[in-house]
Amino acid sequence: MQLATHLVPREIQAIESVELTFDQREKSRLRVTMTNAEEIGIQLKIGTMLSHGDKLALHDGRIVEVIAANESLHEVRAGSSAQLARIAYHVGNRHVPLQVEGEYLLMLPDHVLRAMVEGLGGTVTEVQRGFQPESGAYGHSHVHHSHDDQGHGGRIHDHLAPRNEDR
Question: How far apart are CA 127 and CA 124, in angstroms?
Fold first, then answer.
């Protein structure tokens, strides 16, 4: 099995591709199947998150483009830009992954957030799309997708806050 251990510049032409969900793209070590049905391993530096359009180098020299796979998402729309901004603010306060587009937001399905969005006057539609949420405000974020007992979804951590032993 071929192994990808590092990223290469996006301008390099890829000859293979692999579709990965957001959950897969945040893992630094995994086994996946490329679109040509060949299985490869990905072993990147711990904490590396892949984005749509990233390029991986296999040990045999082939370049593989990362494609954001379609997955179940909630599309959020509002009656005005101000209302959509208000909804984005409140969703962002929950520290969950959020993709911001011009006229709508995309987020992972979460019944608690759906109820909050609808309570703020937004509409939620279930869609199948590739998901590329905003990175943390400082550019280095990591998302945990575990759900707590209240049904709350992923939380983004920027890893810039000092650890307890550093305080």
Answer: 9
- What's the Cα-to-Cα distance from 167 to each of 1, 157, 163, rounded to whole Å? 45, 18, 7
d(CA 143, CA 85): 22
Tell me the whole-structure pTM to 2 decimals. Answer: 0.77
Q: Which residues of the chain have pLDDT under 50?
A: 140-167
What is the bridge-based pairing of β-strands 2-8 and 39-43?
parallel
pLDDT of residue 135: 80
d(CA 40, CA 4): 7
Model pLDDT, residue 161 = 38
Which residues are 30's β-sheet partners? 42
